[in-house]
Write a structure and sequence with these properties.
The protein is α+β, with helices and mostly antiparallel strands. The chain contains 11 helices and 12 strands.
Amino acid sequence: MRPPSGVALAARTPWFDADACAGHRTVRWEDGERVGEDPLTIGTHHDLASVTKVVGTTTALMRLVSDRIVGLDTEVSRYLPGFRGGGKESVTVRDLLLHRGGLWEWHPLYIAAGDPEEAYRVAEELPLRYRPREGRHYSDLGFILLGRVVATATALGLGQAVSELVLGPLGLDATRYAEPAGEPVATGARDDRVEIGMLDSGTPYPVPYRSGDFSGWRRGPVHGRVADGNAYHAFGGISGHAGLFSTVPDLLRFASALSGYREHDALVRPEVAREFFAPGPDEAQALGFRRYRLRLGGETLTVLGHPGYVGCAVGFVPDRGVALALACNRLLVEGTPVPGETLWHELLKATATEIEKRSGR
């Protein structure tokens, strides 16, 4: 496996603050040869990919649940009337946040639909793949629908809703949907080859299409635009599952705020935050957030967070003042890129080691 072209990371704890970056934010090729590169900086803007699920959609829903505008145990069909039939009537907002709604994991909506409204309709009308609540099946489609719930409940577009509910109140000025808020920018992918390969192999999800059914593939570097196919091709860069760009300092600010959630009760009521942070039926999955273990001496802390396919991740430990951020462009390599989860776990281990050293545990 090939290491990423560039990596930036930061950790904020009661014992130390640290950040570091190395490598390159862009790589250029000509005729298959690497011919140029630009250095990565700590303030480089990155495509968050699925980190959008927590920074945008989940935190917006925390705010809406706190304000009693959305109910966790309300059926999704209450907000999205087209989400009905085949057992969908029983699926709740909570089920989708836990990835237990029975939805398909992925579907190329950009092939099935010609515009965002039609793409949402297709997402709502797709039959369930599993029985609701029978198990956890990580689903982009579930978070696409949750983004639609946020937009419907607020009577705003998703981008404006997340800006007003989350980004503005937390001062995340470098975080924006669809395109970076400024320079410099990390290239997210070499092209659309990943989804082309998914379609032509039928792996990991069987779908009734092949790459030849779509004419809008990007054949060159994906720079300053969302790498995810559904977010970019179907929704113009604004979706519940992907679409945000941000920087390591903004991710750290976000994680610090959620770690100190009691001090942000205008954003989320503490009892609602604790409900979102608690494990669901699957120990490693909370409401929207994934749960990771951080071992410190004889104590095990829980890190809440989420990784993204392009190479970013964010995490925090509630009530303990621990915030973590990672950003890299792992897809800009020849061959097989190192998994983002591997890089994230390395950051968790390094943070634990440094805390133990500094705190004398």
